[in-house]
Task: inverse folding
């Protein structure tokens, strides 16, 4: 990939991420302030502990105590009482610290959640509006990930990078300043291993990240083989390929294991190395610090002990930096995926001043329509078709001829590149999008039902529909009878995890859903395609019912429907090659005749009346 | 225990405010038998395991010693002003540090290897089990569930093996040694400190419990978010077609807000307990300062001892806080192990290896003798079915959904075994024939044309893995459909997506037919696809099928009239019984169930016939 381009786009992304943080600037700063205060108070507690140690020690080896300048040094007799006060002070500081901690945790969590809610809702809203083209090009797993994991990574940039980075800077400065104040030379000596630690961590991260990605890929293969094996259990069993598959799985499993071992080797080297460097810091502190204590140049409590506390905090923070750098990278990748959706243009734009059309009669016209999913590669060429209100138009043609595409132009799922589609003589691009779609009912090849009740599924487009309206639609779709026979009638839950319905039953619910508001135009995209022949006849009655008294476009190969249609349109390679009634077409040579004859052969071979 | 999932999905949950159940698992007592079995998984790696134990014990002494050295130095050379002694001691500390880290290196490495090796073996064992489990298992099990045995459950087991036990030993040992050192410093002060330990433990425990509860709720709520998203994506056409975008967006907003609120709950729990734990730590410090200070003041102990306590406090109390996490992890890993073991322990009713080998080449005669079969006891789906297919015959199975057609197929393939009666192949009871040997002479083309990830060539070769490319091409030529597959972007080398994405329905059917043809089976099972492909492809498919079935005993769940008309024997099934049998013409003349079915099938054709 072009390196410079990635760089600049990374900058653009960074800017946008920062802008996102800017929206919450006051609260971010609030969190930073709280955390800083929290740490400062912690350092105060540490100092009090050190002071107490020194006060006690003074009893045995009197020497200078780093007594706070504001307070007069206490007399010897009061010293023990002073220790008690200091202990109380430590507790008091701890209580304040606890309260601060709680507030900081809560306000930071609230900030995080608000960003998440904001991003998720915005994404989802956008997803709902995006045209099908987006869905054609993205797998559902990737879309779900964008709304879930990627959003988390994006908000991590705000609370994990920006806020945490500020806190890190402030705290490092704070600890460093205090350590330097205690003893500059000791500070430098103890911090000597810190840069080394940082470098090692970076090297480790650089090695481990690709290694982990590789492991992840191998793991995915293990899972893929497994999933396929479960799904294809009859095939594996039926062809006696158990050993072959076991061999394949064992291979995948071993490759994953080998990769994991490579990572362990790195990990098992990394953590002891870091551990040893930490130990080294400690050794320097004890060795050099102890020497200073012996020389009387460093107090045991306020000097050495406090320094010990500061040093461990400081090291912890330095280690956190590498995590932060990793987060930036991850946030950028996630941001790209999130912003891609947010920036995606909604192709189907509603008109600014729509022409009202509350009660169309249902005349549909295609006027010179050319359309391709990629403009350079048209699927439909110069389609002209004029359908009168109430007519039934049957469309047939080979797979890929453009039948479904033709239907999807009527409710404006896509807009044609050339030509216009008109409803009652009005360009549909001038109609309100919701209104247009409300006038059109449709049934797809595979009936998708949501995981909710039959009632809610039928009322999907019109949640306020009355029970009577729902029942009316179900009756036309010949679905009322079987729905009432379900365990909980209209309240039975269907869909992916619901009741077992046959394909025919699902399709009839889908027909009822399409008819609920008695639309003047009905589109049916081969509703029996995925249905076994036994249940097909059930749907047919429903389809017949549905077609009467409305303009209907139906994609079908069934002779009975073709014969019933007022007009048959034969579509081949995106062009209308023939149009007319069944009787007209069956007498001409061509695709229609071929298909019709094949069906006659198939069905009428020894039919009683044949 | 089965995985618990909310029965309804978000769309309905939002409407009826479904509750989220809590996990009771964490409150259950430890199952020692399960622990033992989990531990037993390591016995294949005895040497590594024992070495690891040795390392872990070493570490549990090294860690507290390392922490005790600084206070000892303070107490010794520093208090006495002995500079050479100080240098010597620091040198000693360096040596110990080096040793400790070396132990660490081997411990980390061995523990990871052990854990990974154990789950690798488990995954292999689970897969091997999947290969021999009866087909009834697959009827009742979702893919996702099996996958989670391999993923999350295995991960939990791994964590259990590589962390829980060994880390617990290190932690306990480090606590004990630290306690010993502190006791040696000052027994009285130590007793005062240890008196506080139960409080810390209690706070921790309540905290863990609360936290794991909120986390469980978060998980469930998250799965609602994802399943709603998944539905929204699959149902986008419906949503936009019915202009429901805004309603959905509002519902989803509520859902996300709820989910965030659950997350806030978790934050509140940690926000309360984390500071409380910290406060508690400070309490220890305060007590040390107060009580230890008083003792040092009066000369009962030295101030260096008090400082030593401050150093060791973390080493001693760290594990207390850690134990809770370890326990949760142990429980999770036991739960995972329980589910995996349950799968591994599933009985295999008629294992192949108990049957005699050596079936030899079969002629392909299939006989059902008074066969009754039930998937679930007491609910038979086939009643006293008897028929006989001569070698090379084409048998069509006809009947409504649920009439028993697939059950007959399942018995011929030995995917299931008869409840009563006998199925015979070449006169031999199928119960005495190894399933794998039978399957080698059997071919399947099922309704769902499953393609594996890989090339088209790989998929066809699945029927006979040792076949050469040339043989595969010959089969395609023989079926007369080579051109249909060679028009694919990269011909036979075209890769098939996860669900056969780039390949059309008709092409997929042809691949499956070629696959069966390549296997050159004696018995052919065909469940005709119902999804319609365009008529031209359909003609090619029928042509290929005729080639495939010729000369083999074939059982076809028939949806195409052309197949039924050609059958040597049509078995008409109704509610698990053969109600009519014969050839097409006879049956039609008989004007019974078959004739009625036929008319239902061909309503269009009939209308056409009557109309013209």
Result:
């Amino acid at each position: 990939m072009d390196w410079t381009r990635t760089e600049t786009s990374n900058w653009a992304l960074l800017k946008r991420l920062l802008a996102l943080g800017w929206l919450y600037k006051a609260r971010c700063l609030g969190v930073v302030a709280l955390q800083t205060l929290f740490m400062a108070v912690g350092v105060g507690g540490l100092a009090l502990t050190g002071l107490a140690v020194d006060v006690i020690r003074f009893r045995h080896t009197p020497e200078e105590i780093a007594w706070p300048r504001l307070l007069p040094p206490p007399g010897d007799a009061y010293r023990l009482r002073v220790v008690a006060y200091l202990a109380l002070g430590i507790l008091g500081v701890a209580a304040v610290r606890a309260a601060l901690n709680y507030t900081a945790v809560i306000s930071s969590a609230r900030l995080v959640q608000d960003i998440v809610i904001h991003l998720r809702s915005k994404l989802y809203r956008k997803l709902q509006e995006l045209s099908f083209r987006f869905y054609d090009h993205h797998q559902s797993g990737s879309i779900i990930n964008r709304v879930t994991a990627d959003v988390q990574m994006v908000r991590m940039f705000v609370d994990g990078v920006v806020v945490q980075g500020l806190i890190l800077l402030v705290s490092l400065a704070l600890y460093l300043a205090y350590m330097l104040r205690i003893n500059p030379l000791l500070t430098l000596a103890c911090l000597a291993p810190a840069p080394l630690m940082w470098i090692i961590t970076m090297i480790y991260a650089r090695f481990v990240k690709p290694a982990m990605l590789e492991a992840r890929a191998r793991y995915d293969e293990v899972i893929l083989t497994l999933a396929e094996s479960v799904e294809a259990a009859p095939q594996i069993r039926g062809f006696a390929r158990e050993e072959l598959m076991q061999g394949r799985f064992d291979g995948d499993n071993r490759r994953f294991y080998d990769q994991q071992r490579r990572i362990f080797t790195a990990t098992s080297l990394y953590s002891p190395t870091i551990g040893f460097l930490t130990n080294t810091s400690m050794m320097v502190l004890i060795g050099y610090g102890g020497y200073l204590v012996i020389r009387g140049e460093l107090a045991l409590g306020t000097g050495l002990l406090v320094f010990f506390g500061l040093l461990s905090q400081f090291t912890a923070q330095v280690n956190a930096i590498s995590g932060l750098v990793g987060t930036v990278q991850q946030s950028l990748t996630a941001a790209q995926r999130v912003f891609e959706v947010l920036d995606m243009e909604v192709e189907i734009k509603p008109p600014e001043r729509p022409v009202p059309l509350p009660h169309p009669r249902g005349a549909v016209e295609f006027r010179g329509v050319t359309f391709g999913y990629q403009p350079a590669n048209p699927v439909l060429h110069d389609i002209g078709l004029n359908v009168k209100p109430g007519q039934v138009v049957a469309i047939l043609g080979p797979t890929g001829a453009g039948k479904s595409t033709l239907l999807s132009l009527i409710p404006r799922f896509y807009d044609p590149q050339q030509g216009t589609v008109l409803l009652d003589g009005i360009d549909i691009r001038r109609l309100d999008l919701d209104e247009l779609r409300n006038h059109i009912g449709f049934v797809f090849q595979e009936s998708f039902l949501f995981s909710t009740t039959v009632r809610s599924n039928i009322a999907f487009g019109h949640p306020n529909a009355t029970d009577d309206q729902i029942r009316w639609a179900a009756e036309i779709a010949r679905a009322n009878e079987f729905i009432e026979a379900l365990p909980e009638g209209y309240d039975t839950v269907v869909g992916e995890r619901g009741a077992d319905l046959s394909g025919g039953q699902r399709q009839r619910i889908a027909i009822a859903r399409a008819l609920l508001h008695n639309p003047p135009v009905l589109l049916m995209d081969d509703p029996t395609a995925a249905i076994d022949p036994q249940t097909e006849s059930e749907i047919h009655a429903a389809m017949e019912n549905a077609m009467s008294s409305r303009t209907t476009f139906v994609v079908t190969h069934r002779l009975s429907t073709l014969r019933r249609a007022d007009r048959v349109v034969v579509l081949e390679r995106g062009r209308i090659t023939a149009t007319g009634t069944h009787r007209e077409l069956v007498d001409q040579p061509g695709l229609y005749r071929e298909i019709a004859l094949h069906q006659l052969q198939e069905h009428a071979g020894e039919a009683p009346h044949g | 225990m089965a995985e618990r999932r909310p029965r309804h999905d978000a769309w309905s949950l939002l409407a009826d405010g479904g509750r989220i159940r809590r996990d009771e698992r964490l409150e259950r007592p430890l199952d020692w038998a399960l622990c033992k079995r989990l531990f037993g998984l390591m016995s294949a790696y005895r040497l590594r395991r024992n070495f690891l134990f040795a390392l872990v014990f070493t570490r549990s002494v090294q860690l507290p010693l390392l922490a005790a050295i600084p206070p000892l130095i303070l107490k010794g050379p520093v208090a006495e002003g002995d500079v050479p002694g100080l240098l010597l001691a620091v040198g000693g500390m360096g040596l110990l540090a080096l040793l400790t880290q070396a132990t660490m290196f081997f411990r980390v490495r061995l523990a990871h290897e052990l854990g990974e090796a154990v789950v690798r073996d488990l995954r292999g064992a689970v897969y091997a089990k999947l290969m021999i489990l009866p087909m009834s298992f697959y009827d009742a099990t979702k893919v996702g569930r099996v996958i989670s045995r391999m993923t999350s459950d295995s991960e939990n087991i791994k964590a259990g093996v590589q962390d829980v036990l060994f880390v617990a030993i290190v932690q306990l040992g480090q606590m004990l040694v630290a306690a010993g050192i502190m006791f040696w410093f000052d027994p009285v002060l130590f007793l005062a400190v240890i008196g506080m330990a139960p409080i810390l433990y209690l706070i921790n425990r309540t905290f863990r419990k609360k936290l794991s509860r909120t986390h469980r709720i978060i998980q469930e709520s998250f799965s609602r978010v994802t399943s709603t998203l998944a539905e929204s994506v699959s149902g986008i056409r419906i949503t936009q077609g019915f202009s429901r975008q805004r309603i959905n967006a509002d519902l989803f907003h509520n859902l996300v807000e709820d989910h965030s609120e659950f997350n806030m709950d978790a934050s509140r729990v940690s926000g309360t307990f984390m500071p409380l734990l910290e406060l508690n730590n400070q309490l220890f410090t305060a007590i040390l300062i107060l009580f230890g200070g008083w003792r040092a003041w009066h000369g009962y102990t030295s101030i260096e001892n008090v400082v030593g306590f401050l150093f060791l406090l973390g080493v001693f109390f760290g594990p207390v806080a850690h134990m809770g996490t370890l326990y949760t992890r142990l429980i999770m890993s036991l739960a995972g192990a329980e589910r995996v073991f349950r799968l591994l322990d599933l009985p295999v009713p008629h294992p192949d290896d108990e049957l005699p080998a050596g079936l030899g080449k079969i002629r392909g005669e299939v006989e059902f003798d008074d066969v009754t079969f039930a998937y679930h006891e007491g609910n038979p789906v086939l009643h006293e079915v008897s028929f006989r297919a001569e070698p090379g015959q084409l048998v069509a199975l006809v009947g409504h959904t649920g009439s028993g057609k697939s059950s007959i197929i399942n018995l011929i393939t030995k995917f299931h075994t008869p409840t009563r009666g006998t199925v015979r192949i070449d006169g031999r009871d199928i119960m005495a024939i190894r399933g794998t040997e039978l399957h080698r002479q059997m071919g399947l083309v099922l309704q769902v044309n499953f393609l594996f990830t890989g090339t088209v060539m790989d998929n066809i070769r699945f029927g006979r893995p040792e076949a050469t490319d040339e043989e595969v091409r010959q089969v395609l030529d023989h079926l007369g459909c080579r051109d249909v597959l060679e028009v694919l972007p990269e011909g036979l080398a075209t890769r098939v997506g996860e669900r056969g994405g780039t390949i059309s329905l008709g092409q997929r059917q042809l691949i499956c037919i070629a696959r069966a043809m390549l296997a050159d089976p004696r018995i052919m099972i065909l469940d005709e696809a119902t999804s319609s492909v365009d008529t031209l492809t359909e003609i090619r498919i029928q042509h290929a099928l005729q080639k495939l079935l010729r000369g083999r005993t074939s059982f076809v769940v028939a949806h195409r009239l052309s197949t039924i008309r050609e059958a040597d024997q049509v078995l008409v099934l109704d509610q698990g019984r053969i109600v009519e049998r014969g050839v097409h013409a006879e049956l039609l003349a008989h004007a019974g169930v078959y004739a009625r079915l036929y008319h239902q099938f061909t309503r269009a054709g009939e209308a056409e016939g009557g109309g013209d």
About this structure: Chain B has three domains: 1-7+32-185+326-347, 187-300, 358-441+525-531+560-612. The domain at 358-441+525-531+560-612 of chain B is CATH 3.40.50.300 (Rossmann fold). The first strand of chain B starts at residue 366 and ends at 373. Chain B is about 65% helix and 10% strand.
